[in-house]
Amino acid sequence: MTKFDVETELAKLKKETRDRHQMRFKNSKLNLYRGELVDLRNHGASIAELQRWLKSKKISVAWTTVKRWLDNHG
Length: 74
Known about the structure:
Elements: H1 6-24, H2 34-42, H3 47-56, H4 63-73
Helix pairs in contact: 3-4
């Protein structure tokens, strides 16, 4: 029977967590239009209007995605 080494197992789990996190996130397509989105929002555009504006730029996203992006970047 092998002895359980808690430090080795914990190190493996921490590395796996870091690797999973790095793979999960990527740059948003909305970052290309950061200035325009923030300006439009500051001048009174609604989330739905921003969504339609993005659609005219061939970017199809849900309004909740736009809201979440603005909460983080606006």
